[in-house]
Amino acid sequence: MLKVLILGSAAGGGFPQWNCNCDNCSKIWAEDPDAVARTQSSLAVTVDDENWFLLNASPDLRQQIQMNKELHPKFGKRHSPIVGAILTNADVDHIGGLLTTRESHPLAIYATKRVMGVLGGNSLFNILNPEYVDRRDLPVFETTELQYKDGTPSGIEVELFPVPGKIALYLEDESKGDNFGSVPEDTVGIKISSKKSGKHFYYLPGCSAMPDELKDRVRGAEVVFFDGTTWIDEEMIKTGCGVKTGQRMGHMCMDGPEGSIEAFKDLDVKRKVFIHINNTNPVLLNSSQERKTTIEAGWEIGFDGMEVLL
C-alpha cells in the first residue's frame, strides 16, 4: 500500500492570499460556496498508516496537521507521526513549515545538496536542533530508501530528478543572466515508490516545461501530481495581481499549445492531479468553464484532504 494525502493544494500564499481581493479571493472573503479555501502546497505519504513523510513543508503545516487526524500526536506528551520531509526546492512555501517542527522531535530531512546549502546558509534554520533533525543530501537520478532519524528503513524509496524551473525568488541574482543563477538541482521532481509493492507516483509541484525526457519518464504512470499554478501564462498580469508571467516564476500554464494539459495528452497517465494552484487560477472556482475544460481533459483538481491510494 502507498497512501498519499494532499495537505495543501494552493500555491505560495494559499487561497485566499492574505491581502488579495481578486475575483477568486473575493469569493472566499464573501463566503461564496463557489470557492473553497486551500492551504499552501504539500503532500504526505505513508506505507504503513503510522509513519508519514512530508513532500515539502508548507508554512501552513500546523494548520494542515490539525485538519488531518492522520498527523495528530498519538502517544505520550510529545509525539508526531511525521518522521521526515523531502524537499523539491528552496521556495518559501516549501521550506517554511520546517520551522514548525523545531520542538525537539526526531526528523530526517532530505533534499538535493543545492537545497541543503540554502538551509545551511540561513541561520534561521539553526533552530532545527541537529541532535533531533538529520539533514541528508539526496543525489539526483539515484533511488534511495528513506530512513527514519534512527536509521530504520521506511519502506519508501525516492528518486529525485531535475525538472525545468528556476532558483527560489529570494535567491535570484540578476547579474547571472536570464536564469538568475539557477542550476538543475534547484528544482526537482520526485518519484516515490513502495519498496514492497513497487507501486509509485510522481510529484512535480514546480515545472516550467515538458521536454521529451520528462514526458518519457512519466509516460504510463499510475498517478502524477503536477504543477497547476496558472491557467494561462499571463494570468497574473491580466488579473492585475502581478507583473510576472508563469514562465518567469518557473511554472508552465495549464492551457494552450505549450500548456500541461496538451503536454500530457498522449502520455497515458492514469490519474493526473493538479496541485500548487495559484489564487488567480480560474479552475479554483467550481462553476468555471476552465475547471470544466480541465476535468473533461481527464485531469483532477487536487484539494486539501484529498487521499490517493496505490
UniProtKB/TrEMBL annotation:
The entry's keywords? PQQ biosynthesis, Transport
Does the record bear Phosphoprotein in its keywords? no
GO BP field: pyrroloquinoline quinone biosynthetic process
The pathway this protein participates in, as annotated, is: Cofactor biosynthesis; pyrroloquinoline quinone biosynthesis
Domain of life of the organism encoding this protein: Bacteria
InterPro entries the record matches: Metallo-B-lactamas, PQQ_synth_PqqB, RibonucZ/Hydroxyglut_hydro
**Keyword Transport on entry:** yes
Q: Which residues cross the membrane?
A: none
Q: Where is the Metallo-beta-lactamase domain?
A: 51-277
Q: Which PANTHER family match?
A: COENZYME PQQ SYNTHESIS PROTEIN B, HYDROLASE C777.06C-RELATED-RELATED
Q: What does this protein do?
A: May be involved in the transport of PQQ or its precursor to the periplasm.
For this chain, the family text in UniProt reads:
Belongs to the PqqB family.
Instruction: Supply the name of the protein.
Output: Coenzyme PQQ synthesis protein B
Organism name = Candidatus Terasakiella magnetica
The organism's taxonomy opens as: Bacteria, Pseudomonadati, Pseudomonadota, Alphaproteobacteria, Rhodospirillales
Q: Give the gene name.
A: pqqB
